[in-house]
Write a structure and sequence with these properties.
This protein is an alpha/beta fold. A 6-stranded mixed beta sheet has the order 2-7-4-3-11-12. The protein has a 3-stranded antiparallel beta sheet with strand order 9-8-10. Strand 5 and strand 6 form a beta hairpin. It contains 20 helices and 13 strands. The chain is globular, with a radius of gyration of 28 Å. The two termini are 38 Å apart.
Protein backbone atom coordinates (compact mmCIF):
# COMPACT_ATOMS: atom_id res chain seq x y z
CA UNK A 1 0.00 0.00 0.00
CA UNK A 2 1.43 3.37 -1.03
CA UNK A 3 1.76 5.99 1.71
CA UNK A 4 -0.56 9.01 1.44
CA UNK A 5 0.74 12.00 -0.47
CA UNK A 6 2.22 14.73 1.67
CA UNK A 7 -0.20 17.44 2.78
CA UNK A 8 -0.13 20.81 1.07
CA UNK A 9 2.39 23.07 2.75
CA UNK A 10 0.69 26.45 2.77
CA UNK A 11 2.71 29.55 3.64
CA UNK A 12 1.53 32.11 6.15
CA UNK A 13 2.96 35.41 7.33
CA UNK A 14 4.45 35.88 10.75
CA UNK A 15 2.73 38.17 13.19
CA UNK A 16 -0.77 39.60 13.23
CA UNK A 17 -1.50 42.81 11.30
CA UNK A 18 -0.36 45.77 13.37
CA UNK A 19 1.97 43.62 15.52
CA UNK A 20 5.58 44.44 16.40
CA UNK A 21 6.77 41.45 14.36
CA UNK A 22 4.92 42.61 11.24
CA UNK A 23 6.34 46.13 11.65
CA UNK A 24 9.88 44.86 12.29
CA UNK A 25 9.82 42.73 9.12
CA UNK A 26 8.49 45.57 6.96
CA UNK A 27 11.33 46.97 4.79
CA UNK A 28 9.84 50.43 5.23
CA UNK A 29 9.19 49.97 8.94
CA UNK A 30 10.93 51.46 11.98
CA UNK A 31 14.10 49.35 11.58
CA UNK A 32 14.12 47.75 15.01
CA UNK A 33 16.28 44.87 13.80
CA UNK A 34 19.11 44.12 11.37
CA UNK A 35 17.46 41.65 8.95
CA UNK A 36 19.27 39.12 6.80
CA UNK A 37 17.38 40.51 3.79
CA UNK A 38 19.32 43.76 4.15
CA UNK A 39 22.63 43.71 2.23
CA UNK A 40 24.89 44.53 5.19
CA UNK A 41 23.46 41.63 7.20
CA UNK A 42 24.93 39.00 4.86
CA UNK A 43 28.50 40.24 5.17
CA UNK A 44 30.85 38.10 7.22
CA UNK A 45 31.18 39.33 10.83
CA UNK A 46 34.73 39.90 12.08
CA UNK A 47 36.46 36.59 12.97
CA UNK A 48 35.94 35.76 16.64
CA UNK A 49 36.76 32.68 18.66
CA UNK A 50 34.12 31.00 20.77
CA UNK A 51 34.23 31.10 24.54
CA UNK A 52 33.14 27.45 24.57
CA UNK A 53 34.98 24.30 23.51
CA UNK A 54 33.63 21.60 21.18
CA UNK A 55 32.73 19.24 24.02
CA UNK A 56 29.91 21.58 25.06
CA UNK A 57 27.99 20.82 21.86
CA UNK A 58 26.05 17.93 20.42
CA UNK A 59 26.25 17.34 16.68
CA UNK A 60 24.24 15.37 14.14
CA UNK A 61 27.29 13.81 12.45
CA UNK A 62 31.10 13.86 12.03
CA UNK A 63 30.95 16.37 9.17
CA UNK A 64 29.21 18.87 11.42
CA UNK A 65 31.81 18.24 14.14
CA UNK A 66 34.65 19.28 11.82
CA UNK A 67 32.87 22.44 10.70
CA UNK A 68 31.91 23.23 14.31
CA UNK A 69 35.54 23.06 15.39
CA UNK A 70 36.47 25.48 12.60
CA UNK A 71 33.80 27.92 13.74
CA UNK A 72 34.91 27.69 17.37
CA UNK A 73 38.48 28.53 16.29
CA UNK A 74 37.23 31.75 14.72
CA UNK A 75 37.15 30.49 11.12
CA UNK A 76 33.38 30.67 10.67
CA UNK A 77 30.13 31.57 12.33
CA UNK A 78 26.78 30.28 13.61
CA UNK A 79 23.14 30.65 12.68
CA UNK A 80 21.23 30.10 15.90
CA UNK A 81 17.69 29.31 16.85
CA UNK A 82 16.25 27.64 19.91
CA UNK A 83 13.43 26.70 22.20
CA UNK A 84 12.66 25.16 25.56
CA UNK A 85 12.96 21.34 25.69
CA UNK A 86 9.24 20.82 25.10
CA UNK A 87 7.69 17.37 25.49
CA UNK A 88 7.81 15.41 22.17
CA UNK A 89 9.23 18.54 20.41
CA UNK A 90 6.20 20.65 21.32
CA UNK A 91 4.23 22.43 18.58
CA UNK A 92 5.06 22.23 14.88
CA UNK A 93 6.81 25.58 14.74
CA UNK A 94 9.76 24.21 16.76
CA UNK A 95 10.53 21.93 13.82
CA UNK A 96 10.06 24.85 11.43
CA UNK A 97 12.61 26.88 13.40
CA UNK A 98 15.23 24.16 13.09
CA UNK A 99 14.64 23.69 9.36
CA UNK A 100 14.86 27.46 8.78
CA UNK A 101 18.18 27.71 10.64
CA UNK A 102 19.62 24.77 8.66
CA UNK A 103 18.57 26.30 5.35
CA UNK A 104 19.80 29.78 6.23
CA UNK A 105 23.19 28.46 7.39
CA UNK A 106 23.64 26.56 4.12
CA UNK A 107 22.93 29.67 2.05
CA UNK A 108 25.06 32.00 4.18
CA UNK A 109 27.96 29.54 3.97
CA UNK A 110 27.87 29.84 0.17
CA UNK A 111 27.68 33.62 0.39
CA UNK A 112 30.38 34.10 3.03
CA UNK A 113 32.78 31.41 1.83
CA UNK A 114 33.37 30.18 5.39
CA UNK A 115 31.79 27.50 7.58
CA UNK A 116 28.37 28.44 8.94
CA UNK A 117 26.91 25.94 11.41
CA UNK A 118 23.22 25.92 12.35
CA UNK A 119 22.94 25.74 16.15
CA UNK A 120 19.84 24.88 18.19
CA UNK A 121 20.01 26.46 21.65
CA UNK A 122 18.01 24.30 24.09
CA UNK A 123 16.77 26.71 26.75
CA UNK A 124 16.62 24.09 29.46
CA UNK A 125 16.61 26.61 32.32
CA UNK A 126 12.93 27.36 31.65
CA UNK A 127 10.68 26.43 34.57
CA UNK A 128 7.22 26.75 33.00
CA UNK A 129 6.01 23.16 33.39
CA UNK A 130 2.55 23.95 31.99
CA UNK A 131 4.16 24.91 28.67
CA UNK A 132 7.18 22.63 28.51
CA UNK A 133 5.76 19.45 30.01
CA UNK A 134 2.84 18.96 27.62
CA UNK A 135 2.11 18.28 23.95
CA UNK A 136 -1.15 18.57 22.03
CA UNK A 137 -1.63 15.66 19.63
CA UNK A 138 -4.17 15.33 16.82
CA UNK A 139 -5.67 11.91 17.47
CA UNK A 140 -7.01 9.31 15.05
CA UNK A 141 -10.41 10.99 14.92
CA UNK A 142 -8.88 14.45 14.27
CA UNK A 143 -9.65 15.63 17.79
CA UNK A 144 -6.99 17.38 19.87
CA UNK A 145 -5.67 15.59 22.93
CA UNK A 146 -3.14 17.08 25.34
CA UNK A 147 -0.61 14.69 26.88
CA UNK A 148 1.38 15.88 29.88
CA UNK A 149 4.08 14.79 32.27
CA UNK A 150 3.25 15.20 35.95
CA UNK A 151 5.08 18.06 37.62
CA UNK A 152 7.69 16.48 39.89
CA UNK A 153 7.20 17.08 43.60
CA UNK A 154 9.02 20.25 44.53
CA UNK A 155 9.92 20.91 40.90
CA UNK A 156 7.48 23.73 40.18
CA UNK A 157 10.21 26.37 40.40
CA UNK A 158 13.09 24.25 39.14
CA UNK A 159 14.31 24.21 35.55
CA UNK A 160 12.48 21.72 33.38
CA UNK A 161 15.47 20.64 31.33
CA UNK A 162 17.36 19.31 34.31
CA UNK A 163 14.47 17.08 35.38
CA UNK A 164 15.36 13.41 35.04
CA UNK A 165 12.61 11.27 33.55
CA UNK A 166 11.35 8.55 35.87
CA UNK A 167 9.13 5.55 35.36
CA UNK A 168 6.17 7.12 37.12
CA UNK A 169 5.94 9.96 34.62
CA UNK A 170 6.47 7.92 31.48
CA UNK A 171 2.91 6.63 31.26
CA UNK A 172 2.59 9.46 28.75
CA UNK A 173 4.42 7.24 26.25
CA UNK A 174 1.60 4.68 26.40
CA UNK A 175 -0.92 7.48 25.90
CA UNK A 176 1.00 8.63 22.86
CA UNK A 177 0.93 5.14 21.32
CA UNK A 178 -2.86 5.06 21.68
CA UNK A 179 -3.28 8.53 20.18
CA UNK A 180 -1.20 8.88 17.01
CA UNK A 181 -2.45 7.58 13.63
CA UNK A 182 -1.46 4.08 12.57
CA UNK A 183 0.59 3.69 9.37
CA UNK A 184 3.74 2.05 8.12
CA UNK A 185 5.70 4.92 9.73
CA UNK A 186 4.16 4.83 13.20
CA UNK A 187 6.41 2.16 14.67
CA UNK A 188 9.52 4.07 13.54
CA UNK A 189 8.51 7.32 15.20
CA UNK A 190 7.28 5.67 18.37
CA UNK A 191 10.62 3.90 18.59
CA UNK A 192 12.39 7.26 18.26
CA UNK A 193 10.25 8.65 21.08
CA UNK A 194 10.83 5.68 23.39
CA UNK A 195 14.55 5.79 22.69
CA UNK A 196 14.70 9.52 23.45
CA UNK A 197 12.41 9.61 26.49
CA UNK A 198 14.14 6.82 28.38
CA UNK A 199 14.00 6.56 32.14
CA UNK A 200 16.92 8.35 33.76
CA UNK A 201 17.50 10.81 30.92
CA UNK A 202 17.13 14.59 31.47
CA UNK A 203 14.28 16.31 29.62
CA UNK A 204 16.71 18.46 27.63
CA UNK A 205 18.70 15.41 26.46
CA UNK A 206 15.46 13.62 25.49
CA UNK A 207 14.37 16.64 23.45
CA UNK A 208 17.74 16.83 21.69
CA UNK A 209 17.73 13.12 20.89
CA UNK A 210 14.21 13.15 19.43
CA UNK A 211 14.91 16.27 17.36
CA UNK A 212 18.01 14.60 15.92
CA UNK A 213 15.99 11.50 15.08
CA UNK A 214 13.29 13.49 13.30
CA UNK A 215 15.72 15.70 11.35
CA UNK A 216 17.79 12.72 10.21
CA UNK A 217 21.08 13.48 8.49
CA UNK A 218 20.55 17.25 8.17
CA UNK A 219 23.70 18.75 9.60
CA UNK A 220 23.35 20.90 12.69
CA UNK A 221 24.65 21.28 16.24
CA UNK A 222 22.91 21.89 19.54
CA UNK A 223 23.78 23.08 23.01
CA UNK A 224 22.04 22.76 26.35
CA UNK A 225 21.94 26.08 28.21
CA UNK A 226 22.21 24.30 31.57
CA UNK A 227 25.65 22.80 30.86
CA UNK A 228 28.04 23.77 33.69
CA UNK A 229 30.78 24.92 31.29
CA UNK A 230 28.31 27.27 29.60
CA UNK A 231 27.25 28.70 32.95
CA UNK A 232 30.88 29.26 33.90
CA UNK A 233 31.71 30.85 30.55
CA UNK A 234 28.75 33.22 30.99
CA UNK A 235 30.07 34.56 34.31
CA UNK A 236 32.02 37.52 32.80
CA UNK A 237 28.88 38.76 31.05
CA UNK A 238 26.89 38.44 34.27
CA UNK A 239 29.68 40.35 35.99
CA UNK A 240 29.09 43.21 33.55
CA UNK A 241 25.40 43.21 34.46
CA UNK A 242 26.10 43.21 38.20
CA UNK A 243 28.90 45.79 37.99
CA UNK A 244 26.84 48.23 35.92
CA UNK A 245 23.45 47.74 37.55
CA UNK A 246 22.04 51.20 36.85
CA UNK A 247 23.39 51.21 33.30
CA UNK A 248 21.67 47.88 32.64
CA UNK A 249 18.37 49.17 34.00
CA UNK A 250 18.65 52.29 31.86
CA UNK A 251 19.40 50.20 28.76
CA UNK A 252 16.26 48.15 29.40
CA UNK A 253 14.25 51.34 29.91
CA UNK A 254 15.64 52.77 26.63
CA UNK A 255 14.42 49.70 24.77
CA UNK A 256 10.94 50.15 26.24
CA UNK A 257 10.92 53.85 25.28
CA UNK A 258 11.97 53.11 21.70
CA UNK A 259 9.07 50.73 21.22
CA UNK A 260 6.57 53.10 22.81
CA UNK A 261 7.75 55.93 20.56
CA UNK A 262 6.97 53.64 17.63
CA UNK A 263 3.47 53.05 19.00
CA UNK A 264 3.94 49.66 20.66
CA UNK A 265 3.92 48.35 24.20
CA UNK A 266 7.10 46.49 25.13
CA UNK A 267 6.52 42.71 25.41
CA UNK A 268 9.13 42.28 28.18
CA UNK A 269 7.91 43.99 31.31
CA UNK A 270 10.52 45.37 33.69
CA UNK A 271 10.64 44.53 37.38
CA UNK A 272 11.68 47.39 39.62
CA UNK A 273 15.41 47.25 40.41
CA UNK A 274 15.76 43.70 39.00
CA UNK A 275 18.42 42.68 36.53
CA UNK A 276 17.62 40.41 33.54
CA UNK A 277 19.18 37.55 35.47
CA UNK A 278 18.09 34.60 37.61
CA UNK A 279 19.76 32.85 40.51
CA UNK A 280 18.95 29.34 41.73
CA UNK A 281 20.16 28.52 45.21
CA UNK A 282 18.88 24.95 45.03
CA UNK A 283 15.17 25.37 45.70
CA UNK A 284 14.08 27.39 42.68
CA UNK A 285 14.95 30.31 40.41
CA UNK A 286 14.32 33.92 41.38
CA UNK A 287 15.26 37.28 39.91
CA UNK A 288 18.45 39.02 40.93
CA UNK A 289 17.35 42.19 42.73
CA UNK A 290 18.84 44.88 44.88
CA UNK A 291 17.52 45.30 48.36
CA UNK A 292 18.33 42.70 50.96
CA UNK A 293 21.26 41.55 48.80
CA UNK A 294 23.68 44.22 47.57
CA UNK A 295 25.38 44.21 44.17
CA UNK A 296 28.66 43.42 45.95
CA UNK A 297 27.11 40.35 47.58
CA UNK A 298 25.74 39.21 44.24
CA UNK A 299 29.21 39.54 42.74
CA UNK A 300 30.61 37.39 45.54
CA UNK A 301 27.97 34.73 44.80
CA UNK A 302 28.89 34.87 41.13
CA UNK A 303 32.53 34.21 41.96
CA UNK A 304 31.72 31.27 44.23
CA UNK A 305 28.75 29.72 42.39
CA UNK A 306 28.56 30.82 38.73
CA UNK A 307 26.51 27.71 37.85
CA UNK A 308 23.64 29.13 39.93
CA UNK A 309 23.07 32.05 37.56
CA UNK A 310 21.07 31.96 34.33
CA UNK A 311 19.70 34.56 31.88
CA UNK A 312 16.14 35.71 31.51
CA UNK A 313 14.36 36.30 28.21
CA UNK A 314 16.06 39.70 27.78
CA UNK A 315 19.66 38.68 28.46
CA UNK A 316 19.70 35.25 26.79
CA UNK A 317 20.04 36.71 23.25
CA UNK A 318 23.03 38.77 24.34
CA UNK A 319 24.52 35.74 26.08
CA UNK A 320 24.43 33.71 22.85
CA UNK A 321 26.36 36.38 20.96
CA UNK A 322 28.74 36.91 23.87
CA UNK A 323 29.70 33.24 23.98
CA UNK A 324 29.60 32.47 20.27
CA UNK A 325 30.29 34.12 16.90
CA UNK A 326 26.69 34.44 15.72
CA UNK A 327 26.00 35.85 12.26
CA UNK A 328 22.23 35.45 12.30
CA UNK A 329 19.44 34.13 14.46
CA UNK A 330 16.10 32.61 13.42
CA UNK A 331 13.12 33.92 15.38
CA UNK A 332 9.36 33.54 15.58
CA UNK A 333 6.92 36.46 15.92
CA UNK A 334 6.99 36.60 19.72
CA UNK A 335 10.79 36.54 19.76
CA UNK A 336 11.00 39.21 17.05
CA UNK A 337 8.76 41.35 19.24
CA UNK A 338 10.95 41.17 22.32
CA UNK A 339 14.22 41.37 20.37
CA UNK A 340 12.92 44.69 19.08
CA UNK A 341 13.49 46.22 22.52
CA UNK A 342 16.95 44.70 23.15
CA UNK A 343 19.23 46.90 21.04
CA UNK A 344 20.22 49.20 23.94
CA UNK A 345 20.95 46.19 26.18
CA UNK A 346 23.25 44.61 23.57
CA UNK A 347 25.03 47.95 23.29
CA UNK A 348 25.37 48.39 27.06
CA UNK A 349 26.90 44.91 27.34
CA UNK A 350 29.21 45.57 24.36
CA UNK A 351 27.88 42.50 22.54
CA UNK A 352 27.37 42.47 18.74
CA UNK A 353 23.78 42.17 17.54
CA UNK A 354 23.34 39.36 14.98
CA UNK A 355 21.06 39.80 12.01
CA UNK A 356 17.55 38.43 12.40
CA UNK A 357 15.73 36.04 10.09
CA UNK A 358 12.06 35.06 10.49
CA UNK A 359 11.33 31.37 10.83
CA UNK A 360 9.21 29.74 8.19
CA UNK A 361 5.50 29.58 8.99
CA UNK A 362 3.40 26.80 7.49
CA UNK A 363 -0.08 25.30 7.62
CA UNK A 364 -0.31 21.62 6.69
CA UNK A 365 -3.49 21.08 4.68
CA UNK A 366 -4.17 17.35 4.37
CA UNK A 367 -6.01 15.97 1.34
CA UNK A 368 -9.17 15.19 3.31
CA UNK A 369 -9.14 18.71 4.78
CA UNK A 370 -8.68 20.19 1.30
CA UNK A 371 -11.70 18.24 0.04
CA UNK A 372 -13.83 19.63 2.89
CA UNK A 373 -12.65 23.17 2.15
CA UNK A 374 -13.32 22.85 -1.57
CA UNK A 375 -16.83 21.44 -1.06
CA UNK A 376 -17.69 24.32 1.27
CA UNK A 377 -15.97 26.95 -0.90
CA UNK A 378 -13.54 27.84 1.91
CA UNK A 379 -9.89 28.75 2.20
CA UNK A 380 -7.84 27.69 5.23
CA UNK A 381 -7.85 31.27 6.49
CA UNK A 382 -11.67 31.27 6.60
CA UNK A 383 -11.39 29.05 9.68
CA UNK A 384 -8.94 31.31 11.52
CA UNK A 385 -11.60 32.32 14.07
CA UNK A 386 -12.65 28.73 14.57
CA UNK A 387 -15.27 26.66 12.79
CA UNK A 388 -18.40 28.04 14.50
CA UNK A 389 -18.65 31.33 12.56
CA UNK A 390 -18.39 29.32 9.33
CA UNK A 391 -20.93 26.80 10.62
CA UNK A 392 -23.34 29.64 11.38
CA UNK A 393 -22.85 31.14 7.92
CA UNK A 394 -23.35 27.82 6.16
CA UNK A 395 -26.48 27.25 8.24
CA UNK A 396 -27.87 30.65 7.32
CA UNK A 397 -27.13 30.04 3.66
CA UNK A 398 -28.86 26.66 3.80
CA UNK A 399 -32.05 27.90 5.50
CA UNK A 400 -35.19 27.50 3.35
CA UNK A 401 -35.54 30.80 1.49
CA UNK A 402 -39.35 30.81 1.60
CA UNK A 403 -39.38 30.31 5.38
CA UNK A 404 -36.69 32.96 5.83
CA UNK A 405 -38.63 35.49 3.75
CA UNK A 406 -41.88 34.71 5.57
CA UNK A 407 -40.26 35.10 8.99
CA UNK A 408 -38.69 38.36 7.90
CA UNK A 409 -42.01 39.76 6.68
CA UNK A 410 -43.72 38.64 9.88
CA UNK A 411 -41.08 40.33 12.08
CA UNK A 412 -41.44 43.59 10.15
CA UNK A 413 -45.23 43.44 10.39
CA UNK A 414 -45.15 42.49 14.06
CA UNK A 415 -42.79 45.35 14.88
CA UNK A 416 -44.98 47.84 13.03
CA UNK A 417 -48.22 46.49 14.48
CA UNK A 418 -46.92 46.31 18.04
CA UNK A 419 -45.53 49.83 17.82
CA UNK A 420 -48.98 51.09 16.82
CA UNK A 421 -50.70 49.11 19.62
CA UNK A 422 -48.24 50.34 22.28
CA UNK A 423 -48.68 53.93 21.13
CA UNK A 424 -52.46 53.69 21.26
CA UNK A 425 -52.46 51.97 24.67
CA UNK A 426 -50.06 54.53 26.10
CA UNK A 427 -52.45 57.33 25.07
CA UNK A 428 -55.86 55.81 25.86
CA UNK A 429 -55.33 53.10 28.52
CA UNK A 430 -51.87 53.67 30.00
CA UNK A 431 -52.48 51.11 32.71
CA UNK A 432 -52.17 48.36 30.08
CA UNK A 433 -48.74 49.36 28.80
CA UNK A 434 -47.19 46.45 30.71
CA UNK A 435 -49.60 43.99 29.11
CA UNK A 436 -48.82 45.38 25.66
CA UNK A 437 -45.09 45.01 26.34
CA UNK A 438 -45.57 41.39 27.40
CA UNK A 439 -47.56 40.77 24.23
CA UNK A 440 -44.75 42.26 22.13
CA UNK A 441 -42.11 40.15 23.92
CA UNK A 442 -44.21 37.00 23.58
CA UNK A 443 -44.68 37.46 19.85
CA UNK A 444 -40.98 38.19 19.23
CA UNK A 445 -39.86 35.33 21.51
CA UNK A 446 -42.13 32.91 19.67
CA UNK A 447 -40.76 34.13 16.36
CA UNK A 448 -37.16 33.72 17.59
CA UNK A 449 -37.93 30.21 18.87
CA UNK A 450 -39.37 29.21 15.50
CA UNK A 451 -36.24 30.63 13.85
CA UNK A 452 -34.05 28.52 16.18
CA UNK A 453 -36.08 25.44 15.34
CA UNK A 454 -35.54 26.15 11.64
CA UNK A 455 -31.79 26.43 12.37
CA UNK A 456 -31.82 23.11 14.23
CA UNK A 457 -33.67 21.39 11.41
CA UNK A 458 -31.23 22.89 8.89
CA UNK A 459 -28.24 21.77 10.97
CA UNK A 460 -29.64 18.26 11.15
CA UNK A 461 -29.81 18.19 7.36
CA UNK A 462 -26.25 19.59 7.22
CA UNK A 463 -24.95 17.50 10.12
CA UNK A 464 -22.30 15.57 8.19
CA UNK A 465 -21.08 18.61 6.28
CA UNK A 466 -20.89 20.82 9.37
CA UNK A 467 -19.11 18.07 11.30
CA UNK A 468 -16.50 17.97 8.56
CA UNK A 469 -16.06 21.74 8.74
CA UNK A 470 -15.56 21.50 12.50
CA UNK A 471 -12.93 18.79 12.01
CA UNK A 472 -11.17 20.94 9.43
CA UNK A 473 -11.22 23.86 11.87
CA UNK A 474 -9.75 21.70 14.64
CA UNK A 475 -6.97 20.67 12.27
CA UNK A 476 -6.09 24.06 10.81
CA UNK A 477 -6.86 26.41 13.72
CA UNK A 478 -7.23 24.35 16.90
CA UNK A 479 -8.49 26.47 19.79
CA UNK A 480 -8.67 29.37 17.31
CA UNK A 481 -4.90 29.45 17.10
CA UNK A 482 -2.68 28.66 14.10
CA UNK A 483 -2.03 24.94 13.69
CA UNK A 484 1.74 25.42 14.00
CA UNK A 485 1.38 26.95 17.47
CA UNK A 486 -0.71 24.13 18.94
CA UNK A 487 -0.34 20.78 17.23
CA UNK A 488 2.59 18.46 17.77
CA UNK A 489 4.36 17.10 14.65
CA UNK A 490 4.18 13.42 15.64
CA UNK A 491 0.62 12.91 14.35
CA UNK A 492 1.67 14.18 10.95
CA UNK A 493 4.99 12.32 10.96
CA UNK A 494 3.30 9.03 11.82
CA UNK A 495 0.88 9.51 8.93
CA UNK A 496 3.29 10.80 6.25
CA UNK A 497 6.74 9.68 7.33
CA UNK A 498 10.15 11.28 6.61
CA UNK A 499 8.83 12.56 3.27
CA UNK A 500 6.97 15.24 5.19
CA UNK A 501 10.22 16.58 6.65
CA UNK A 502 11.79 16.51 3.19
CA UNK A 503 8.88 18.49 1.77
CA UNK A 504 9.04 21.02 4.61
CA UNK A 505 12.80 21.39 4.09
CA UNK A 506 12.34 22.11 0.37
CA UNK A 507 9.61 24.68 0.97
CA UNK A 508 11.59 26.27 3.78
CA UNK A 509 14.63 26.60 1.53
CA UNK A 510 12.49 28.44 -1.05
CA UNK A 511 11.14 30.67 1.70
CA UNK A 512 14.61 31.50 3.00
CA UNK A 513 15.89 32.27 -0.52
CA UNK A 514 12.94 34.58 -1.09
CA UNK A 515 13.51 36.49 2.13
CA UNK A 516 17.24 36.86 1.49
CA UNK A 517 16.37 38.29 -1.93
CA UNK A 518 14.42 41.02 -0.15
CA UNK A 519 10.90 39.87 -0.97
CA UNK A 520 9.54 40.79 2.44
CA UNK A 521 6.00 39.76 1.52
CA UNK A 522 7.27 36.19 1.76
CA UNK A 523 8.53 36.68 5.26
Amino acid sequence: MNPPANPEIVSSRLGAPGSIARAALDPGGPGFLPLTSRPSATHAPPPRRSRLGPDAFGVSGPGVRRRLESVLRGEGTFVTTGHQPVLFLGPLYVLYKALTAISLATRLERTLGAPVVPLFWIASDDHDWDEVGSATILDRSDATRTLALPVPAGGERRSVGSHTLDGGGLDVLDDLCETVPQSEFTAHYLELVRDAYAEGRPMSAAFARLLAGVLGDRGYAWIDSARPELRRAAAPLYRRLLSHWDGTLEAEAAGVRALREAGFEAPISRIEDALPLFFDEGVGRHRVRRGETSPESWLERLESAPEGFSPNVASRPALESYLLPVAATVLGPGEIAYWSQLGPLFSALDVPVPSVHPRAAWTLVEARTRRILDRAGLSPQDLAMGAEPVVERLTREARPEAVERALGRFREGAETGMAAIEEAVAEDVPGLRGAAGKMRKGILDATAELSRQVDRATRERLDVRLGQVRRAGANLFPRRRPQERVLNPLSFLCRYGPGLVEGLARETDRRVASFLAGRAEDG
